[in-house]
Design brief:
Farnesyl Diphosphate Synthase, four-stranded parallel beta sheet, 2 domains, 26 helices, 56% helix, mainly alpha
Length: 607
């Protein structure tokens, strides 16, 4: 049997980030005969692979390189070969999933670009009645079998479908550009997924080997003996904590006079201000986001119990006391976001107006305080179930995280509002370690402590969370220059809000005296302010100082430190979870292309 140990790296060794030039993924074999040759070879090559553990992208690359060498074919076909190998890795598990639990994801570029009569609805392209292109053929066949079908890219509905538990496997059609970026996420998620690459990346009226797509859609066999470990069941459990009716079951609404379903529908008593305030708080707690912190708590608890939830949903056992502590972690996080948005006067959160923009600053402050109280209450009420020592340890860790986060935020605010804008890299890193790392640490520690004594984990968990949190915050600073469709709908908010980022600190330290003086002037607000021009100029000054390359290297450095700590952790189930957190929290994509829908299958842990 071929295992991970046969590859250049193992799960027990420090990971090396093998970054391949993306050009190697672009070439689809030019002839059908060559595509069939690689597919057939991949079937035989993948047959002995150990499917009990997920592959990583570097491991899949190594397998692809070996197979191409055996076939005496060039590296330009590596992306295509990796897709073929991944298909064979997942084939048995996908074809055992009932059709009605599968999603067929099709790209809009397959449609007939000239005169396509179909319209997009909230679920993608509505084309069942049209027969003008192969999209309708694929869609009709899949829907007849019971599939859910999306003809779309870039829509958050994919994430919602996956995490909320509506589908358990994916059949995808996409260009190699998309599949290159999707492979890592699919492998990390442990979602059975097979794909047919488009024959070109033109993004308009492209084509695919139709019979290959139909073959993948029609796959069906009994369940295999071995299933790959996945965190999907725990993701769904974390997601469900904040969904009704589970939310109100775990955290009963003391003022509610209507059932949770009516509250969600916007009904109920609007005249009682106590009820209105409660509904605002619970609505905010239920808002989107990755729900990554409760996931960390649930997954850490599960790992210490032998990680049964990574094998199947049926084996997952999460007592209500564990769920309530995880929900408390999310309540603290949502409270910190309310207060953070007020202090930074942010406009958007979760794709909608921030709470203080909707209800005013006083009400938003109070809702944040309410959620803090709710979090402590959820933990304290479980003291009989958890025991006094366990409850006290968790509350102590949560209050410590609350204290340190407030310190970091306070330092940032004082710098922002002060006249002296000088900033060192060490200053920025201290703020990062206080603002970001404590939340990861508290979530991880809580899960471990719920499973038993955790004294010997305190130091490594602290160091792991510190390095992971700092690396994540640096990565978040980089992403601020791109914007996103969720929280930072406008790029450059860190600069516009004059936040003390590491990018700025490195620029002030490494710029020429003239550039440093210009940066300080731009930050002072004494110049004529045009936001677009300001951001353009700061970007030039950052680039001239080589800042973007420097922080990429710093991310790698802190990631390596976090992985080195994980290397020494026992049991192996907890070590695997820490590797998973590093991979997902610090997941990076090429910046030149927009992230498509297929890449949104796995929540990236973050703020």
């Amino acid at each position: 049997m071929t295992t991970v140990a046969d590859l250049p790296q193992t799960a027990n060794e420090p990971k090396k980030d093998k970054r391949l030039n993306s050009a190697a993924f672009k070439v689809v074999p030019e002839t059908r005969a060559l595509r069939d040759q690689i597919r057939a070879a991949a079937t035989e090559f993948a047959r002995p692979l150990d499917r009990s553990k997920s592959l990583t992208k570097p491991e899949l690359m190594a397998l692809g390189e070996t197979l191409l060498a055996q076939l005496q074919l060039g590296e330009q076909y590596l992306g295509f070969t990796m897709v073929c190998l991944a298909n064979e890795f997942w084939r048995e598990q996908l074809q055992a999933v009932p059709f009605h639990r599968r999603l067929l994801l099709l790209p809009h570029c397959l449609k007939n670009a000239e005169g396509c009569p179909a319209d997009y609805d909230e679920f993608g392209l509505d084309c069942r009645k049209c027969g003008a292109c192969s999209v309708a053929d694929f869609k009709t066949r899949a829907e007849d079998l019971g599939y859910k079908v999306l003809v779309s890219e870039g829509t958050p509905i994919v994430l919602k479908i996956i995490v909320s538990g509506h589908v358990d496997a994916i059949v995808g059609v996409a260009c190699l550009n998309v599949l290159e970026k999707a492979i890592d996420k699919v492998l990390l998620a442990g979602i059975p997924c097979v794909a047919a690459p488009l024959l070109s990346s033109n993004c308009k009226s492209t084509s695919v080997d139709d019979d290959w797509v139909f073959e993948l859609v029609n796959l069906q066999t009994p369940a295999p003996n071995v299933k790959t470990k996945t965190y999907l069941h725990l993701m769904r459990a974390a997601h469900g904590l904040c969904e009704e009716p589970e939310l109100s079951r775990l955290a009963p609404r003391p003022r509610a006079t209507t059932p949770p379903s009516a509250v969600v529908a916007g009904e109920g008593d609007r005249s009682d201000p106590l009820v209105v305030h409660e509904n605002i708080a619970y609505d905010w707690l239920a808002q989107g986001g990755k729900r990554s912190r409760p996931l960390i708590t649930l997954a850490a608890y599960d790992a210490m119990k032998g990680a049964p939830a990574t094998r199947s949903a049926e084996e997952m056992h999460l007592p209500d006391a564990v769920k309530r502590v995880a929900l408390a972690i999310e309540a603290f996080h949502k409270a910190s976001l309310v207060h953070d948005d007020i202090e930074d006067d942010d406009t958007f959160r979760y794709g909608r107006a921030t709470l203080h923009r909707q209800y005013g600053v006083p009400t938003a402050i109070n809702v944040g305080d309410y959620l803090l109280g709710l979090g402590y209450r959820l933990v304290a009420k479980e003291r009989k179930e958890l025991g006094g020592d366990c409850t006290a340890d968790i509350l102590n860790k949560l209050s410590e995280a609350h204290f340190r986060l407030s310190e970091g935020q306070g330092a940032e605010l004082l710098w922002r509002d002060g006249r002296d804008k000088s900033l060192t890299a060490l200053d920025a890193l201290k703020i990062y370690a206080l603002k970001t790392a404590p939340a990861f640490e508290a979530a991880l520690y809580a899960g471990l402590r719920l499973a038993g004594p955790a004294d010997h984990y305190e130091k490594p968990v602290h160091e792991f969370a510190k390095n992971l949190g700092v690396a994540f915050q640096i990565l978040n600073d980089l992403k601020d220059w791109e914007g996103d469709s969720d929280n930072k709908m406008v790029a450059g908010q860190d600069v516009l809000s004059a936040r003390p980022t590491l990018l700025l600190a490195l620029a002030l330290e490494g710029a020429t005296p003239a550039d440093r003086e210009e940066l300080l002037t731009l930050l002072s607000g004494t110049h004529s302010r045009d936001n677009d021009q300001l951001l353009a100029r700061v970007r030039i000054l950052f680039s001239r100082a080589g800042i973007f390359a420097k922080v990429e290297k710093l991310i790698d450095k802190f990631q390596a430190k976090a992985e080195a700590i994980a290397d020494e952790i026992e049991p192996v189930e907890l070590r695997e979870l820490l590797y998973y957190l590093v991979d997902t929290v610090l997941e990076r994509q090429p910046k030149s292309e927009a992230e498509p829908a297929l890449l949104q299958l796995l929540p990236v842990l973050g703020r």
